[in-house]
Amino acid sequence: MSIRIGVIQFPGSNCERETMLAIERAGMVPVPHLWNAPTALLDEMQGFVIVGGFSYEDRSRAGVIAAHDPLMVALHAQSDQGKLILGICNGAQILVEAGLVPGVLHNQVVMALTDNKRIVDGNILGTGYYNAWIQMRLSDTYQRNAFTRHLTPENILSIPVAHAEGRFVMTQALLDEIKVQGLNVFQYCDAAGQVLPHFPVNPNGSIDNIAAISNKRGNVLAMMPHPERTQNGDPIFLSMRDAILEGRVPQATALYYAPRDSACPRYAAPSGSTECVVELKMTDNQAWTVQNTFKQMHAPLIVHRKTHWEIHCDDPTVIQQIKQSEVLYQNCKEKEWVASATPGEAAIAILVRAKEDLIGQKKLQTLQDHFGIQGVKTIKHSVVWFFSHATLSEKDLVDYILATHMISNPYAHDCYRYTVSSRARF
Known about the structure:
Layout: E1 4-9, H1 16-25, E2 29-34, E3 47-50, H2 64-67, H3 70-80, E4 84-88, H4 90-98, E5 112-114, E6 118-120, E7 123-126, E8 130-138, E9 157-163, E10 167-169, H5 172-181, E11 186-189, E12 210-214, E13 220-223, H6 234-246, E14 273-280, H7 285-296, E15 302-312, H8 316-325, E16 334-336, E17 348-354, H9 358-371, E18 378-388, H10 394-404, E19 413-417
Parallel strand pairs: 1-2, 1-3, 3-4, 4-13
Antiparallel strand pairs: 5-10, 6-7, 8-9, 8-11, 11-12, 12-13, 14-15, 14-16, 15-18, 17-18, 17-19
């Protein structure tokens, strides 16, 4: 039997070659499938790998634009048939944002893969892209599934990671349920197999050292490390092959978990703080991509985006020093934004801030350690998204945007209705 594995690629994917080689080493046939290919071709495949890379340049955040691609609707249907889907790195991010992992009822989004957190002795070493060789193993409570047949918890895999948003976050209630069900399939560990929470054993600060999570059915796996880049990861692909050859379709079962509602209170700048809102001097590709994605979803919105800094400092001289340092923004490509009124322009603004706001903390640390700037209590980083629509009311527009998770994930971000002294000129 020839096992055909669809190698799913979006604009920005870049790990297709090593993925196809890993599939071939396992005795299967890789079949490239681009995002714009006919979805009917998926019926000819026995399984799928969504490859790593930077789909749509990680615009808005990693995986979310691809998760809204029509191809993912077709992959939902393939998963419902019991076919195997392995998402690696960016593929894992796409699966999480599409709700295929962990697979609650109606594939609702109930967790996030968000900014890396690398902290040692209270110092933030970094918040973005990180690549290194790590160790991982099956968790002690893992559920045997289609990707683990050639492994036991005693097998320690040394494989690379390479990502900027690889930290699993979720509520404690969901984590408890995932552990009870054994869906926390792989965990980061040291060379001796000890699951230690600190960096560099845990390379991104992922909750409970989770490196990969499956759905309850066991046919979909979201994995941040790259098993395709080394023969050390071949047991995962061999397990996939054997599960397909066995031909047993696992029972379709959704994970029981009720997701939280997305709140969006009004933003109020704290007393003693200064707001600095920054816009690009060039075309904002992130805003354009979000606008185009909404258009494809039959929601013709006008979308703009600004960067928002909240600086808690009482000294205007220090505020000026911060701006001149170019740590918060670079004058060559960005400028402070001044709102100006445009008659008849109806728009809403939503401020999105990471719950832990590691970027803001890192900027403050840089200003203190490298520029000697003192007297600043906090710096907080956010993105303000502006939306306008011809017919929707403000409430309906806000509710719709938050429901899509296009600009925020409620498990990684807080959202606020943002008001400026006058409306933006678009």
